[in-house]
Every structure is written in structure tokens, then in C-alpha cells.
Amino acid sequence: MEELNNEQEMEMSLDVDVGDADGNSDGGEMVDISTPDFEEVPEKLLRLPISRIKKLMKTDPDVCLASREAVFLITKATELLLDSLAKEAYTYTAGENKKTVMKKHLEAAISGVDALVFLEGTLD
């Protein structure tokens, strides 16, 4: 039997024939019983396109196959790295009372934060 994903389950509905008080059904009124609609849509887990990350991963000659889980983890790690770099660069930008993040702010963030030192020289 085919597995249903969450979206298909949420869209699934049943039509029920409602009989009278004695339980007799005349085939008249049909009631739609749907699964509850969720008011809040959960935030997407990833902001970067997975397909592009997978293409980038496959450009490495050592990578022949990449599982969905591996691509997801690489994508999420990339997003977290970019988020951290952007926040640090903004800190240096705000420290100079500027509104625009410039290359010098990114370089200062890279050299000023130990966790980002591996990126030194990448902006040259």
C-alpha cells in the first residue's frame, strides 16, 4: 500500500451518509468529515535550496552518492555558518556606527572570531 505524507493526510476527507434518528439512511445528506486544518504552517526547516547544495556536493570527485540526510545536514550546517558570519559582521558594522555591511566588516569578523578563522583569505 502506498504511504501517505503529512500533506496528503491533511487533505484527506471522508464523506459520511447521515441517517435519521432511527439509523435509517436514505442516501440523502452527505457530511464532509475532514482532518483538522492547522492554522499555523510550520516554518520551513531550510532556507537554502537542497538541489543546489547536492549539485555542489557532487562536484567533489570523492562524492559519488549523497543521501538525503547528508544533504540536509550539510545544508543546515551551511545556513548556521552563514547566520553566524552575518551576525558577527553586523556586530563589527554596528561598532563603527555604519548601516551597510562591507567586505572589511566580514574580514574583521573572520579574523576576530576563533571559530571563523578557517575562512581567512577566502574573500581575496
UniProtKB/TrEMBL annotation:
The keyword Nucleotide-binding does not apply. Pfam families: CBFD_NFYB_HMF. Keywords: Nucleus. It is found in: Nucleus. It comes from the Eukaryota. GO terms for biological process: DNA-templated DNA replication. Residues 47-110 form the Transcription factor CBF/NF-Y/archaeal histone domain. Its main location: nucleus. GO terms for cellular component: epsilon DNA polymerase complex. One of its GO terms (molecular function) is protein heterodimerization activity. InterPro entries: CBFA_NFYB_domain (IPR003958), Histone-fold (IPR009072), Transcr_DNA_Rep_Reg (IPR050568). This is Transcription factor CBF/NF-Y/archaeal histone domain-containing protein. It comes from Polyplax serrata (Common mouse louse).
